[in-house]
């Protein structure tokens, strides 16, 4: 499989800037995205957080995790003492995909094929950042990091993603979608507990 990943480069990127230029040039698999949304954070961050794909706000602003789910993640990180500006935040898929409903753009989940298309870029990103810990936020990130579809409920916690120490937790958008306040609060507390462990593991 490593060979197959190598074959895609005409010129192997040696920096995140070179990698991002390749992603920008490739453009979206599905037309519609405003721009590619690259990973953001220090070049040598200790923790990499991997999400699914940019949402509406991320697509417009060109930055990962700036919409509602991103704001919740940023708040949760701050609550456990993880400085967002010291972490590296990225996505399995680098372009927003959506269904148009009137003037609204509704997030559409990436297919397995789309996740696979972007996977070598994510792997290269990890190789360039060389973090101590890689965090999968939700099932799409987990699929991208392992190549396998596994429910979060059965895999949550400490993991290993190839050479990287890993941690699996829910995606913050899952917390936003929960129906009632009590369930939401409980799920948010569990998410904070995961982030505390993540903070400790990256020490
Ligand atoms: N959800 C994601 O998975 N990534 C983002 O950047 C924003 C929302």
Automatic annotation (TrEMBL):
It comes from the Bacteria. Residues 38-196 form the Uracil-DNA glycosylase-like domain. Belongs to the uracil-DNA glycosylase (UDG) superfamily. Type 4 (UDGa) family. This is Type-4 uracil-DNA glycosylase. The lineage of its organism: Bacteria, Pseudomonadati, Pseudomonadota, Alphaproteobacteria, Hyphomicrobiales. The chain holds residues 265 to 467 of 480 of the full protein.
